[in-house]
Amino acid sequence: MSGKNDLQNNLSNAIDENTRQIKRIADSLEELLSMIKGVQPAELAKKAREHKKTQANLKREAKKNE
Question: Residue 43 has what pLDDT?
Answer without folding.
Answer: 79
